[in-house]
DNA sequence: TTGTAAGCGTTATCAT
DNA sequence: ATGATAACGCTTACAA
């Protein structure tokens, strides 16, 4: 915990000015002899440049923030896992914010960007930005990349996925297996994914010519225990031959519930999760799941942000990651 | 992305000196009237203090770094999940480093603390610090808390667990179930947990009066696929009636392998994982697992660091988290 | 090529 | 109570 040397210390030790030290350290043209003296002094003293001083001067922190609802959720873990190495390779540190899906927290993250502790922000809002806060997004003090959808014309880089198509893929798959009574276990409707998936479910049913039956729909939360409770509630009043779950955690909970009710998966009830997390292959039977490309979305978001940091003036970009259906035992029986 | 206002801007707007602005902003005694003017100006301009300037002056970043091998590993996720809210509550940001278990990366994290981008570091080294690097730890430019064991007398705060006891609990449990041929699937021996668990396994066997049979031991890596391969190798040359796995990922892989070999769990082979991650309850049968208190270790580490940041002079503390055995279906049959 | 000095946005000391 | 000013550690004109 020794007090570290500064360029002043080195300058004294090497017998040159601080300007020369700075030049050598930054590789600017300098006399061979001076370089040697400075390097020697720096080495001996174990010099390390001070980040605060550097960023005060350069207006660059070489930090990027990532904000999401819950680092315990495998979806976000997948994102972080991709974001981290991309940033690291580019010389950026990663600052992690967990907002618990709280709108105020999310807005706070946005506002505190004004402290300039980070050069940019990747945010995956769960509750989303109400209309009145869009200007906060647009006028953010640093570049922001949003993972998830933002309203048309919001001038920020954006990585989205098409959950509508994802849900459709799932329902078509189940329909193709002969299932006609397809239930849906959703997360809160006031969340962005919750709302999107609810709409997508209704639409996909219609496209398949299936009736919408409110008894087949339950809203809970994006957690396993909530998923189990929702499944129990649903099973109390109807007997679906398939269940679509708004994420893998819910699906895992549904699996618990189905097991308790002695219903076989997939024979009695076919089960589909969403997000295709590692939990899908840990479960038994392994879970068919709609991949929304979390890892790829994370990576693309990091890349977009780095691009933006190099060229702040470029037009906002929207990247769309296509969903895919990963079929496993929970709908097809074989392992 | 507007250029933010500084205290200079505010001072001009309010018609006072920057010193007064600073005082008001920091709640130092000031005339009512001045306070009003400054606050008004600050509000109108949407002032946010600059983090770099502040930390240059105060030598405080209000950031804490956490370095571990792989954010994809549920053990570390559990730690981050606990560390984050503790830091947040104390007004600190979290900087995340993923080292891939690379020794150089770990040492680099330690060295770069000298940049003073963080006030302290929590590190969970996978490969550990060779003797020659202990001075780097001892002489770190900022307080460090190590999760995992450090050699006696290393002057850093330390949160450890007793994996020896953990392994013993597992073997005693298996022994109590009548298992006598207990195999062991370990991770790399040049990692701290790998080495510790290998020694613990040998000791625990001896304590139970069971012979050590090299055919019952396989070394792989801490991943699922590696666990599956290791299990296959082991099963090719011996038929254990129980398997202890050095973590839950390996256990999951072992489960895959056992299933392929048509061996029933727990009837033919009882299976025990370590770390007690969420994967243990996602798997089927659910996994008996040795909890090493990852969440608690994370939380305690964060608390130790915060304490240290308040009182840098206090004697180094060692916190030990007791392991517990969480018995589930993979050893006891019932769900 | 090198040194002097200004400035990044704060906080804090010192006069006033 | 307030203002002028130095200082934090660095980069970068500008002069020499």
Automatic annotation (TrEMBL), chains A, B:
Name the UniProt key words of this record, in alphabetical order: DNA-binding, Transcription, Transcription regulation
Which InterPro entries does the record associate with it? HTH_LacI, LacI/GalR-like_sensor, Lambda_DNA-bd_dom_sf, Peripla_BP_I
HTH lacI-type domain residues are: 5-58
The domain of life is Bacteria
GO MF term (any one): DNA binding
Q: Please identify the protein, giving its name as recorded.
A: LacI family DNA-binding transcriptional regulator
């Amino acid at each position: 915990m020794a007090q570290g040397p500064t360029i002043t210390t080195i300058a004294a030790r090497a017998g040159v000015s601080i300007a020369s030290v700075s030049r050598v350290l930054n590789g600017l043209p300098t006399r061979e002899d001076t370089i040697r003296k400075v390097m020697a002094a720096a080495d001996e003293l174990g010099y390390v440049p001070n980040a605060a001083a550097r960023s005060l001067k350069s207006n660059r922190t070489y930090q990027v923030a990532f904000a999401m609802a819950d680092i315990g959720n495998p979806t976000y873990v997948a994102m972080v896992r991709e974001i981290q190495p991309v940033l690291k390779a580019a010389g950026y540190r990663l600052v992690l914010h967990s907002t618990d899906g709280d709108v105020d927290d999310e807005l706070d993250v946005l506002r505190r960007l004004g402290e300039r502790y980070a050069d940019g922000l990747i945010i995956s809002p769960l509750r989303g930005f109400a209309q009145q806060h869009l200007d906060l997004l647009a006028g953010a003090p640093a570049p922001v990349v949003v993972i998830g959808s933002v309203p048309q014309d919001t001038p920020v880089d954006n990585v989205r996925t098409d959950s509508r198509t994802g849900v459709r893929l799932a329902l078509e798959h189940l329909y193709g297996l002969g299932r006609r009574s397809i239930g849906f276990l959703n997360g809160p409707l006031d969340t962005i994914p919750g709302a999107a998936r609810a709409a997508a479910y209704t639409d996909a049913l219609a496209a398949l010519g299936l009736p919408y039956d409110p008894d087949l729909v339950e809203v809970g939360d994006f957690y396993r225990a909530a998923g189990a409770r929702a499944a129990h509630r649903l099973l109390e009043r109807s007997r679906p031959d398939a269940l679509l779950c708004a994420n893998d955690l819910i699906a895992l909970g549904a699996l618990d519930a189905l097991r308790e009710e002695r219903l076989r998966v997939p024979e009695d009830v076919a089960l589909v999760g969403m997000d295709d997390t590692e939990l899908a292959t840990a479960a038994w039977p392994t879970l068919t799941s709609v991949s929304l490309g979390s890892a790829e979305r994370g990576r693309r978001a990091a890349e977009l942000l780095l691009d933006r940091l190099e060229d702040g003036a470029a037009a906002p970009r929207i990247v769309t990651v296509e969903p895919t259906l990963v079929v496993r035992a929970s709908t097809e029986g074989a392992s």
